Amino acid sequence: MQRERSVKIVATLGPASSDYDTIRALHEAGADVFRLNMSHGTHDGIAARHAIIRQIEADLDSPIGILADLQGPKLRVGQFADGPVDLAEGAGFRLDLNPAPGDGTRVCLPHPEIFACLEQGAQLLVNDGKIRLEVRAYGADYADCTVITGGVISDRKGVNVPDLVLPLAALSQKDRKDLEFVCALGVDWLALSFVQRPEDVMEARDLAKGRAAILSKIEKPAAVKAFDDILDISDGIMVARGDLGVELPVQNLPPIQKRLIRRSRAAGKPVIVATQMLESMIESPTPTRAEVSDVATAIYEGADAVMLSAESAAGKYPVQAVSTMNNVAIEVEGDPTYAQIIAASRSVDRASVADGIVAAAREIAESTDIRAICCFTQSGTTAVLTAREKPQVPIIALSPLMGTARRLALSWGVTPVVTRTPVTRFKQAVLNAATAAKTLGVASASDHVVVTAGVPFNVPGSTNILRVAPCDERLITSAEAG
What we know:
It is a single chain. This protein is of the alpha/beta class. The chain folds into three domains: 8-73 and 170-335, Alpha-Beta Barrel (TIM Barrel); 85-160, M1 Pyruvate Kinase, Domain 3 (Beta Barrel), CATH 2.40.33.10; 353-481, Pyruvate kinase, C-terminal domain (Pyruvate Kinase, Chain: A, domain 1), CATH 3.40.1380.20. The chain is built from 18 helices and 21 strands. It has helices spanning 20-29, 43-60, 112-116, 173-185, 198-208, 221-225, 227-232, 241-247, 253-267, 289-300, 310-313, 318-333, 336-344, 353-367, 381-389, 402-407, 426-439, 473-481; strands spanning 8-13, 33-37, 65-69, 85-87, 92-96, 106-108, 123-126, 131-139, 142-149, 151-153, 159-160, 189-192, 213-218, 236-240, 271-274, 305-308, 370-376, 395-399, 414-418, 448-454, 463-470. An eight-stranded parallel β-barrel has the order 1-2-3-12-13-14-15-16, surrounded by seven helices. It has a six-stranded mixed beta sheet with strand order 6-5-9-8-7-11, with helices on one face.
């Protein structure tokens, strides 16, 4: 399915978007990748949504990416004996390992790992940062705190520890079971929550065994500090602004978002901007002006994808939310300023033949009357490198592997196409490229496309040929004969 914009849209599925008709409507409205949130729902429910997506993919003959988002080690307080408690500023409050129901003076925090690494003066944030506690004394099984910012605390509220790198594995037992389940099911991307260090990514990669690409969610201050090392061993990045905005001052988020997007772009790794992008559309059919500007900013910065969470999973207007995001993207990318910003922010170290080939493809396409760049790719690397260049023409990625095509659904500007017959000669590659460009409606028989490929074919990382080719099959045949 050829879109009118290059940035991709990730839509989360949930109670509001669980049936065939709604999920198909979301895809036709603009969703390129569907997110399955492993924090909610059962394996049976996840499997049912996965099956529906694959049925839509077959019905529309359009590769669709599926991203499974693992819950990660969620930290929560225990329960209270008599309901919610109002903590007053300046009061004392204890967190401990005692499983007894809490009251106005204490509550259980069933995570001994936190107590093991506490420091005096450390901040503990409860209920998305609405309550702020400061540690004044602690031991192996307790922390006596002063309430810095008061508020109502109730059962199972989340806890953030921004000042410390916790000795927690990025994958809980639940995550390990979920990972194996979704990999066996056949998802394309695994989103890893609460990454703190590169070792967290390697653990997930070892368990996935190549069955899915690994996307690291940056939502901890420790991950921001170790970002370059995390980026190096990840296949993609998500700027997850929810918990990151809780654990860091909110004014820090915009520059961090910009830096992470630029570094991901330079590395040729897809990057998603997520959280509260069109939050008001959970209840309203139209977004706020600030939300529209937030989506537009991510697109101007060169993000590969923007994501909807509760808007499409549990909101009243899931299809309208996707349509709105799609329309904002089309408008932004039609702005002449967009092309200027993208070109000015292009910063790439080109060290390989493939780097040079895709850079030349972009320059030729933008300086002549070329309708598309067609990449033949086995692993997807050539298409991802081409997407890094952010050309002003469509990128058509042709691959014999459905798994590669599905993963490329997340990459900026890439329309993935599965080649039905093996390609062993360059003439076949050119013919397939011309056919795909015409079928997708981006070129006619009188137009030309740039074709990149590697010889020998079907060998990952062998991109070494670039050709400007006509879309007229007769000209291709005669040129080959000559």
